[in-house]
Amino acid sequence: MNGVKTRKQAAKEPKGESPSAKLNGSANGHLSRDITAASGAKPTENIFLFYPNIIGYSRIILAIASLYYMPLHPRTCSLLYSVSCLLDALDGVAARYFQQSTKFGAVLDMVTDRCTTACLLVFLASAFPTWSILFQGLISLDLASHYMHMYATLSMGGSGQSHKKVDQKRTGKLLYLYYNNKNVLFAVCALNELFFIALYLLSFSSPTLSPSLLTSGSSPPASAQPGTPMFPAAALLATPGSAWAMELARANKMDSTIPWFIAAISSPVMALKQYLNVVQLLEASKWLAEGDIETRRQQGLS
């Protein structure tokens, strides 16, 4: 009647929680379920510990070790450097097998390739000072072409676009085949690295390329150590039985036949790789210029 309950009416109603208690209980129930759901959620993946990326870290360690042995241990250096390069193919296989292809892994792979090749070319520039400008040019071309290609791909093709996915109409058949055929990509990269490894070995074994290896009479061989080209060995080998003298003598006893053969076989592919770098650089430049023209048109500047 007037909305006021008598004692008898109140006594007849079933005992339970008050409306406010029911509301609080409902809210607490939702909150507890949310907390439970959050605590049972799948943990975030650690991209840095994916198998392909671990292989990438191994490549870096091997590359650093090869640089350590590079001045005086050509055999050890070549072995470590070659294994590091071969792992470049394994990380891609692991990424596809475990479905762990990531942008970080792709960039890590490319940066490792560029840095290791650049370090070897720096050594060759010091080992063959006459041709240092050529090796410096190869370093610049390699870094510039890959950087501009990746930047053009990300800025013009979208953030999710891989730098290895190229358009045949834009890049031409050779560059398209290079990036889209895994066997061609591996063969070209491997033979390109083999050529530079062969030159590295020849710096220790071929008097034709390294006149410092020539001996005259009973005089000891001149130093093949880059950084001191053509310095007489007497200035360095004060103690003939020293570790330095033993290692240098061991290096100078290398046979140059196999390195010359490897260099001859791989040189055409190395030249092809540099041509592809030029094409990649030019096409990336054109793509970026097209984007600039379109941007200026949209802004009413042209």
Describe this structure in words.
With 302 residues, the chain is mainly alpha-helical. Helix content is 71%, strand content 0%. The protein has helices at residues 7-12, 19-39, 51-69, 74-97, 103-127, 132-157, 168-171, 173-180, 182-205, 233-236, 243-252, 257-298. Helix 3 (51-69) runs antiparallel to helix 4 (74-97), helix 5 packs antiparallel against helix 6 (132-157) and helix 9 (182-205) packs across helix 12 (257-298). It is globular.
Helical/strand content category: mainly alpha
Q: Mind summarizing the main beta sheet?
A: none
Query: CA-to-CA gap between the ends?
Result: 82 Å
What general outline do the C-alpha atoms trace? globular
Model regions low in confidence, pLDDT < 50 over at least 5 residues: 216-238
Number of helices: 12
Radius of gyration: 32 Å
Number of strands: 0
Helix content: over 70%
- Could you spell the SSE succession in H and E letters? HHHHHHHHHHHH
Whole-number mean pLDDT? 80
Strand content: under 5%
Top keywords for this entry?
302 residues; mainly alpha; 71% helix; globular
Brief characterization of the structure:
This protein is mostly helical and 302 residues long. 71% of the residues lie in helices and 0% in strands.
List the helices and strands and how they pair.
Layout lengths: L6 H6 L6 H21 L11 H19 L4 H24 L5 H25 L4 H26 L10 H4 L1 H8 L1 H24 L27 H4 L6 H10 L4 H42 L4
